[in-house]
Design a protein that fits this description.
With 340 residues, this protein is of the alpha/beta class. It is built from 9 helices and 16 strands.
């Protein structure tokens, strides 16, 4: 590691000092890769555990960085490295590089969230949706909420903490939903009814339609690409299909939250697609949610991304839309293929 990189680490730590408060039980991003002079490396902190997302083919860079960070952050107790380009899933999920016991929970905005930092190549908790969790806690009182592609359920947990009347966590993976259950147990959950549905998105939404189930808020947070026997998801091309799929189960006056993580799709293309759908009068863009400062690509103002995220501030494009109930027999909303 050269002096420039060492100085960059020190500068990054200083920019995030306000996030480092005793008892050191929250989560934030410490380093944003190449834009902070550390190519192919993302560094996150969860409580007193530091997680290195290594996108190179060796661990040499991490080995030289660890002593520098530990000297400046002596309260760190555990370190994990996830070798994201390794062929072995166990290496992608990570292994300990110092310490013995990773943190199993963090607290954010007065809500506790369970963690399983070694379960998956991701760290079981997405830092870039922090502001959305704050919004959900503030706005979901008395609402019926469906969190699709829930992963470990943090968005649904935030809605429950905001006194939603019902929260359904929908994800294909039982292990991921088990973390959501642990999060619910950590909190004095005021939500009257929380359910966990380990099921395919397409078939489950069909079921809700068939039984006349409606929600006041639906959260769409799909993977960038996935394929099951019942349907294919490609967020850079087909996001409008997901919107049309869930729109009939959203109550009149309800809310649709869309999250699009497609790195190579510009913010303008995604926003234009939403505006095209809104021309029907049945959807309206109410608010864009920003990604927090510690997670944006470049603290100096250059996005450093393969596609310009504007009008969003990051490749994670979060939009709050209001929904007007449409006749279920009417044709689906259409959008021009401006994202190709």
């Amino acid at each position: 590691m050269n002096q420039t990189q060492q100085d960059s680490i020190t500068a990054a730590i200083q920019r995030r000092r306000k996030l480092m408060q005793e008892p050191y039980n929250t989560a934030f991003r410490l380093i944003n890769g190449f834009v902070e002079q550390l190519p192919d490396l993302i560094i996150d902190i969860f409580g007193k555990t530091i997680v290195f997302h290594n996108y190179t083919t060796d661990e040499d860079t991490v080995d030289t960085i660890i002593p520098v960070i530990r000297e400046q952050l002596p309260w760190l107790s555990t370190g994990i490295i996830k070798n994201r380009k390794h062929k072995e899933p166990t290496q992608q999920a990570g292994h300990l590089v110092f310490g013995e016991t990773p943190d199993t929970q963090i607290e954010e905005n007065g809500v506790k969230y369970a963690l399983d930092l070694l379960m998956n190549q991701d760290a079981s908790f997405y830092l870039d949706t922090r502001a959305l969790r704050v919004w959900l806690k503030q706005n979901m009182k008395g609402k019926r909420v469906l969190n699709t592609f829930a992963y470990t359920g943090s968005l649904g947990v935030a809605a429950a903490a905001g006194k939603a009347s019902e929260v359904i966590q929908l994800d294909l993976s039982k292990p991921f939903l088990s973390v959501a259950i642990q999060s619910a147990l950590l909190n004095d959950n005021p939500c009257k009814d929380t359910k966990y549905h380990p099921a395919d998105f397409w078939s489950r939404v069909n079921h809700y339609k068939s039984v006349g189930k409606h929600f006041d808020c639906v959260i769409l947070d799909p993977p960038i690409f996935s394929k099951t026997p019942r349907g294919t998801i490609d967020t850079s091309k087909d996001y409008h299909k997901l919107i049309n799929k869930v729109r009939p189960i959203i109550a009149d006056g309800g809310t649709l939250i869309t999250i699009n993580n497609a790195l190579f799709q510009s913010g303008k293309d995604h926003h234009d697609m939403l505006e095209e759908l809104c021309k029907s009068g049945y959807l309206k863009i109410e608010k864009l949610i920003s990604v927090p400062d510690d997670c944006i690509a470049d603290p100096n103002g250059e996005h450093g991304l393969p596609a310009d995220p504007a009008p969003y501030n990051n490749a994670t494009k979060i939009t709050i839309l209001s929904v007007k109930k449409k006749d279920p027999t009417a044709a689906p909303l259409k959008a021009k293929p401006i994202w190709n």
